[in-house]
Amino acid sequence: MSPEGYEAVIGLEVHTHLQTTSKLFCGCSTEFGKAPNENVCPVCMGMPGTLPVLNRHAVDLAVRTGLATNSEIATRSIFDRKSYFYPDLPKNYQISQYETPIGKGGYIDLPGDGQSKRVRLVRIHIEEDAGKNIHEMNSSLVDFNRSGVPLVEIVSEPDLRSANEAVAYLRELRAILRYIGASDGRMEEGSFRCDVNVSVRKKGATEFGVKTEIKNLNSFRFVEKAIEHEVGRQIEVLEAGGKVEQETHLWDPEREETRPMRSKEFANDYRYFPEPDLPPLVVPTAMIESARRAMPELPAVKRARYARDCGLSEYEVAVLTAEKDAADYFEAMLPGLKNVKMAANWVMTEVLRVANESGKAPAEAAPPAAEVGALLRMVETQKISLNAAKTVFAAMCGSRKSAEATVAELGLAQVSDEGAIAAACAKVIAEEPDKVAEYRRGRDKLFGFFVGQVMKAMGGKANPKIVNEILKKELAT
Amino acid sequence: MAPSSELNRLTISDAADRLRRREFSALELTRACLERIGAVDPKLNAFITVTEEEAIAQAEEADRRLKAGGAATLCGIPLGIKDIYCTAGVRTTCASKILENFVPPFDATVIAKLRCEGAVFVGKTNMDEFAMGSSTENSAFGPTTNPHDRTRVAGGSSGGSAAAVAADECLGALGTDTGGSIREPAAFCGVVGIKPTYSRVSRYGVVAYASSLDQVGPFSKSVRDAAILLRTLAGEDPQDSTCSARPVPDYERALTGNVKGLCIGVPKEFFVEGMQPEVEKAVRTMLKHYESMGASTMEISLPHSSYAIACYYIVATAEASANLARYDGVRYGLREGAEDNIELNEKTRERGFGAEVKRRIMLGTFALSAGYYDAYYLKAMKVRTLIRRDFERAFENCDVIVTPVAPTTAFRLGEKMSDPLTMYLSDIFTISVNLAGLPGLSMPCGYDANDLPIGMQIIGPQFSEEMVLRAGDALERSGAVPLRRPAL
C-alpha cells in the first residue's frame, strides 16, 4: 500500500450507540427500524422550553466502556453544548462533553502474532446522536428517531500505521464493547460509526504530516479501502511536489474514493460552552469500583486463557472469542466434557452455522449448550458416533428436546456389542469374496468399503472403532 | 357583596376565601376579568392571546371542584400567563414572529401544576421578544403600555403580566426573570413580583432565554398573594435537572408580620448619582419605617456591582445564542421558502427575529467564538463568581438587602429604544441578583411626582424566600404603602 519511504499515521474516532432502552436525555425508545419520527417527543425534537434529563444507564455503560479500555474515569465531568446548524440536529447544538470527558488516557492492546500492539486512547465522552436526513428529488426530510440516542465517542491517538491495523483496532474495540454490553456494534444500522484521521510522512520522521478526516465509513471494508485510497492520494500529492490540505473528505462507496466536502457542509467553530441545563456529572468512586468488579472477562483475557488452558490454535481462539455469545456458549458446553477441542470444533462448525443461518445468537439458534455438551459426552463415551451426533443436533435444533431423548427417539444409540458387529462383519466378508481376495492381495484402500458396508448393514449405529478392529482381524486371516 | 364588575379587583387570598363561601362563582370571577380585558386591553395591549373559551371551561370545572369541596387555594383564580410558557393547545409566541403560530403539544411544568390546582388562564401576556428587553417594546405584537400612564412603558420583559395585574385584568400572573424581567415591570406598574432563588421553580416548558439565569415567578396585588402563588409554583421537577429537590415551605404561613431584629443591609453601590431622587427618597423612607417596626439597617458594600451588567450581557447572550439556534424553520414555527437548508435558516431567522434578539444572538455568538472565549465568556464566569461572593459576604452581616428596583420610574415609550445601552441600565439593580441566583422581591414603595409607582427590592440569601416575603408582607401590612389603582 504505502510506497517505499512513506508511512501512514492514522487515528480513529469511533461513535458507538450505547445499548440503552431509552434516549440520553428523554424517555423515548432507542429501538431501531421504527417508522420515521415514531420515537420522538418534545425533548428530542428540540421544542422550545424542553430540558434534558440524563439517562443513568447510559452513564453506567460509558463508565464500563472506560474501564474496559483502561481509561481513567472522571469522578466529575460536565456536559457542553457544541453548536452547529444542521437540519438533523434539532437544537442546532449537540450536548456533548468537551473539556472534561468521562474517560481519559486509556489504551487497547490489539491481538497479533506474538507481539501485541498497544493503541492509546485520547478520550471517551458521552454525547447525543442527531437525526437522519433523507434526501428526495426536490426536498429533504428528517427522521428524528435517532435524535438523542446515547453515544460514546472513543478517540484514539494517531498510533495506527496501516489500514489493516486500523481495522484490527476497530474489530477489537467492537468486540470489547459487545463483551461489556455497552453497544451492539452494528455498523450497518449506524450504531458503530467511524471517522478516520489520516496523514502520511517520510519513514523515520517524527513530525506528523497534514491530516485529512474521512467521514461516512460504515463498514470495516470501507474503512480499509478509504484509508488505502487516501494514503495513496496523499503520497501522490506529496510526490508531485504538492501540499496536503487539511480538510474533511467524504467516502463515496460507489466510486470507492474520497472526495472533499464543501466547506459549508461542516462548521469550524463549535463555540463549546458548559451546558447550563445539566448539573455536573458526578460518578462516585464506589460506583466505579462496583462497575470494575462486575466487569466480564474481556476478549484479550479470554483469548489468553483459551490458548493456555484449552490447547486451542490461534485461529480457533479467534473464532470462538470473536463474539461473546459464542464464547459463552462454548464455555457452557464444557462441564463434564474431556475433549475440549471437539467442543470447540462443534461450536465453530455446527453451532455457528445454525446461528449464522438464522441470524440469531447461538443460545437462541442452537439447543441449550448444556444439552449439546451432553450430546458430545455421548460421543466421548461412544454411546453414539460423531456422525450420528450431527443428526441428533439437527433434530434438537427443531424439537428442543434433550440429547438423550432425541438419541432414543431416532434410535441412533451406537451399537458396541461385539457379537452383533462380528456377525455383520462375517456376513459382509461372506457376501464379497472377490473384494476380500483383492484386499488380501494388497489393495488396502478397500478397507473403507468394508467398513461402509458393515455400517450400512447396521443402520449406521455400529461403533466404528469396534468395526475397524474386527474387520482388521477377520480380513487378515 | 361586591358588584361583579369589581370582582376582578380582588386579591387572590380574598377571592379564594369568598369563592369558598360561595359569595360568587369562579365563572363570575372569570367573566369579570374577561370583561375588564375587553374594556381596557385595547389600550394596554397586555395580552397577546386571550383564551376566553378555555378560561370559561376552566372556570366551570373550578366551580364543580369548589362545590365538591377540598379544592386547592388557586382553584378558580383567573391568572395571566406570560407568553413564554408552553401551554398545550394554546399558541405560545414568546412575542416573536418566529413562533407566531407555534402551538405546543405540552404544558410547562408550572402550567401543569396550576391546572392541577384548578387555576383559570385568561390569556397569554405580552413581553419583550424572547424576554430580551426592559420595556416590552421589543414585541412583535406591539408594546404594552403602563396602566398608570399610557404614554409610558410597562417595563419588561414581563410587561404584559405586570400591566394585566395592575389593571385588574386578572388576579395574578406568571412572569420570568432573567435580569429583572419580573421585578422591573412590577416596580413600573406598581404591583408585587418575586424572582425566586435560581432552581427553586422548574423551568421545564418555559422558553429559554439564558438558562443559568432564567427563573419563573409570580405577579400579584399583594405580597401574600405572591406567597400563595409561589407555594404552588416551587418544587422539584423530574424534567428539570437543575431544579432543587428541597422541600417547599408554606410561604403564606411565614408571613407573621414581625420584623423585629431583622438586619437590613443597604448597599452603597445601589444609590448612585444619576438616579431619580424620588426613588432613593422612597426607599429610604421605607427603611425608616422598618426601623420603627424593630428592624435595624446598616450600610454594606457589594464592590463588584459595577461589573454586573457587562457580565450579564456576556453570560446571557452566550446562552441565548445557543438556546435560540433551534428556531431554524425545520420543525415548527416560521418557515421561509428556500433552495437549501442554509438559506432556509438564514431567511427564517432574518424575518423571524426582531432587532434586539438578533443583536443579542450576535453578541453571544461573538463571546463564544474561538479566540474570544477566554477573554469574554470565561472572564464573565469569573466575574460572576466574584459577584456571588459579594452577596455571600454581605449576608454574613445582614439578613436581607434592600435596594431600589430600578434607577427611575417608568420611562416614556420609545425613549430608550434607539439606545440599547441606556435601556440595559434599567436593570442595573436587578441583574446581579440573577447572576448570584438569589431571591428578589419587588414591591411598591411610593409614587413620584407624576404619580408613577416606585419599586423597592428585598434580596435574601439562596432559598430565603420565607424571610424575604415576611419582610415585604410586614411592610405592606403596616400600611406604609397605600396601593393606588391606575385610573384607566
Write the layout of secondary structure elements.
The complex is a heterodimer of chains A (477) and B (488).
Chain A: E1 6-17, H1 56-68, E2 72-73, E3 76-77, E4 80-83, E5 93-96, E6 103-104, E7 107-110, E8 117-128, E9 132-135, E10 140-143, E11 150-156, H2 163-179, E12 192-202, E13 212-217, H3 220-239, E14 248-252, E15 257-260, E16 273-274, E17 281-282, H4 285-293, H5 299-309, H6 314-321, H7 324-333, H8 340-358, H9 362-365, H10 369-380, H11 386-399, H12 403-410, H13 418-431, H14 433-440, H15 447-457, H16 464-476
Parallel strand pairs in A: 13-14
Antiparallel strand pairs in A: 1-11, 1-12, 2-6, 3-17, 4-5, 4-16, 6-8, 7-8, 8-11, 9-10, 12-13, 14-15
Helix pairs in contact in A: 2-3, 5-6, 7-8, 7-10, 10-11, 11-12, 13-15, 13-16, 15-16
Chain B: H1 12-20, H2 26-44, E1 47-50, H3 52-68, E2 78-82, H4 109-117, E3 120-125, E4 145-146, E5 149-153, H5 159-166, E6 172-177, H6 183-189, E7 192-195, E8 215-220, H7 223-233, E9 263-267, H8 277-292, E10 296-300, H9 308-323, H10 341-352, H11 355-368, H12 374-394, E11 400-404, H13 420-424, H14 431-436, E12 440-447, E13 453-459, H15 465-477
Parallel strand pairs in B: 2-3, 2-6, 9-10, 9-11
Antiparallel strand pairs in B: 1-3, 4-5, 6-8, 7-8, 7-12, 11-13, 12-13
CATH superfamily of the largest domain in chain B: Amidase signature (AS) domain
- Please tell me the total number of domains of chain A: 3
Trace the largest sheet of chain B across and list its strands. Answer: 1-3-2-6-8-7-12-13-11-9-10
For the secondary structure, the number of strands of chain B is 13
Shape of chain A: elongated
Largest interface: A-B, 32 and 45 residues
Describe the protein:
- The complex is a heterodimer of chains A (477) and B (488).
- The N and C termini of chain A lie far apart (65 Å).
- Chain A is built from 16 helices and 17 strands.
- The model of chain A has no long low-confidence stretch (mean pLDDT 91).
- Chain A is an alpha+beta fold and 477 residues long.
- Chain A folds into 3 domains: 6-290, no CATH class; 297-410, no CATH class; 418-476, Arc Repressor Mutant, subunit A (Orthogonal Bundle).
- In chain A, the strands form 4 sheets. In chain A, strands 1, 2, 6, 7, 8, 11, 12, 13, 14 and 15 form a 10-stranded mixed sheet that branches. Chain A has a 3-stranded antiparallel sheet with strand order 5-4-16, with no helix packed on it.
- Helix content of chain B is 38%, strand content 14%.
- Chain B is globular, with a radius of gyration of 21 Å.
- The mean pLDDT of chain B is 96.
- Chain B has helices spanning 12-20, 26-44, 52-68, 109-117, 159-166, 183-189, 223-233, 277-292, 308-323, 341-352, 355-368, 374-394, 420-424, 431-436, 465-477; strands spanning 47-50, 78-82, 120-125, 145-146, 149-153, 172-177, 192-195, 215-220, 263-267, 296-300, 400-404, 440-447, 453-459.
- By secondary structure, chain B is an alpha/beta fold.
- Chain B folds into 3 domains: 4-254, Amidase signature (AS) enzymes (Alpha-Beta Complex), CATH 3.90.1300; 263-306 and 386-469, no CATH class; 310-368, no CATH class.
- Chain B has an 11-stranded mixed sheet with strand order 1-3-2-6-8-7-12-13-11-9-10. A two-stranded antiparallel sheet of chain B has the order 4-5.
- In chain B, a hairpin with a 2-residue loop joins β4 and β5 (149-153).
- Chain B has 15 helices and 13 strands.
- In chain B, α5 (159-166) runs parallel beside α6 (183-189), α9 (308-323) crosses α11 (355-368) and α9 (308-323) crosses α12.
- The two termini of chain B are 23 Å apart.
- The A-B interface holds A 42, 45-54, 81, 83, 85-87, 90-93, 140, 142, 264, 268-269, 271-273, 276-279 and B 84-86, 92, 94, 99, 102, 104-106, 108, 203-208, 210-212, 238-242, 318-319, 321-322, 325-326, 328, 330-332, 341-342, 344-345, 365, 368-370, 373, 377.
